Amino acid sequence: RPRVLSGIQPTSGSFHLGNYLGAVRQWVAQQDTHDAFYMVVDLHALTVVQDPEALRADSRVAAAQLLAAGLDPERCTVFIQSHVPEHAQLGWVLNCLTGFGEASRMTQFKDKSVKQGTDRTTVGLFTYPVLMAADILLYQSDAVPVGGDQRQHLELTRVLAERFNGRYGETFKVPDAFIVPETARITDLQDPALKMSKSSSTPKGIVNLLDEPKVSAKKIKSAVTDTDTVIRYDEENKPGVSNLLTIYAALTGATVADLEQRYEGKGYGALKTDLAEVYTEWATPFRDRTREYLDDPETLDSILAKGAEKARAVAAETLARVYERVGFLPAK
Ligand code: TYM
């Protein structure tokens, strides 16, 4: 079986609809076709200031959501990044293989550092994509299911894998990004030119999966569309409607063409009302299942402990080869 690995940040508790449709939904599907590793990336979360108690709580909330979304610890490995120290260890080795200019060109870093100012931007944020490369390469992953915003980081991962292999001999598998084009970029409900994002969306623009479904339904019903009336997929001229059609199709399994036909001659109001209902039907049991996992932290923690053990077995093997290749003296 080919292997997949992916990760999600625990920041701010609830995942949003872009996280789910762009990434987590694919993770659920791939646990049956792949040897799958999925993690909550708490090391990455630390690149911006976190309250310690909140980070701890959010990491559990993130893991609970992954299970509630359908990840089954019997069929895949779910773990917390910091439980596997090899991530930070390989991260260091790869830092020493990455050019300063190369890291400076990562657009997510550039965006965030401009927004925060260089004094508030940490070196951790700068090397964030290198740690992500370590995450992926440790598991000899074939594919990495992510949203479109991670494409550049995957490109860097491939470059670093090839560089290491070229310098020290074949060590890492060179992974492919797995990006589903339809759901690669779920946009903000209030500004369809922007992606839906924890850090930049306004409260009305983002659908948080753990919010009261009523709250999210209201946001969907007041999503920004356009002054036309025809329900048609057209990213350029009708980005708001196109986003709603994408979400609708992804949540129901209908095709966008089906939906265009179903809503022929109907108004945006009907589309939004129905989508709000479809979303509510999906989100209600999702929230309930998340709460059940959170109400039983012992079970949750034991799932995560088993996951970390399975992950570590793979990670330790890769790291040992890396340490040997780069010339570290073995500890006897
Ligand atoms: P994060 O936590 O920002 O997002 C988790 C996943 O959600 C996807 N995503 C979206 N997809 C579609 N539309 C959107 N609006 C949208 N917003 C977010 C992201 O692309 C991502 O797949 N760097 C990663 C975490 C990470 C990782 C890894 C991923 C760390 N190590 C190793 C893969 C492999 C991140 O910050 O994701």
From TrEMBL:
Q: Which residues bind ATP?
A: Q9, P10, T11, G18, N19, G147, G148, D149, I186, K195, M196, S197, K198, S199
Sequence motif: 'KMSKS' region, positions: 195-199
Q: Where in the cell is it found?
A: Cytoplasm
Gene Ontology biological process terms in this record: tryptophanyl-tRNA aminoacylation
Q: Which InterPro entries match?
A: aa-tRNA-synth_I_CS (IPR001412), aa-tRNA-synth_Ic (IPR002305), Rossmann-like_a/b/a_fold (IPR014729), Trp-tRNA-ligase (IPR002306), Trp-tRNA-ligase_bac-type (IPR024109), Trp-tRNA_synthetase (IPR050203)
Q: Report one GO cellular component.
A: cytosol
List its EC numbers: 6.1.1.2
| GO molecular function list | ATP binding; tryptophan-tRNA ligase activity
Q: What is its main location?
A: cytoplasm
User: Any idea which UniProt keywords this protein has?
Assistant: Aminoacyl-tRNA synthetase, ATP-binding, Cytoplasm, Ligase, Nucleotide-binding, Protein biosynthesis
Catalytic reaction(s) noted: tRNA(Trp) + L-tryptophan + ATP = L-tryptophyl-tRNA(Trp) + AMP + diphosphate + H(+)
Residues binding L-tryptophan are D135
Listed Pfam families: tRNA-synt_1b (PF00579)
Q: Which top EC class is named for this enzyme in its record?
A: ligase
Q: How does it assemble?
A: Homodimer.
The record's listing under HAMAP family reads: Trp_tRNA_synth_B
Function of this protein? Catalyzes the attachment of tryptophan to tRNA(Trp).
Q: What family classification does the UniProt entry report for this protein?
A: Belongs to the class-I aminoacyl-tRNA synthetase family.
PANTHER family associated with the record: TRYPTOPHAN--TRNA LIGASE, MITOCHONDRIAL
The protein here is known as: Tryptophan--tRNA ligase
Q: Which organism is it from?
A: Streptomyces xinghaiensis
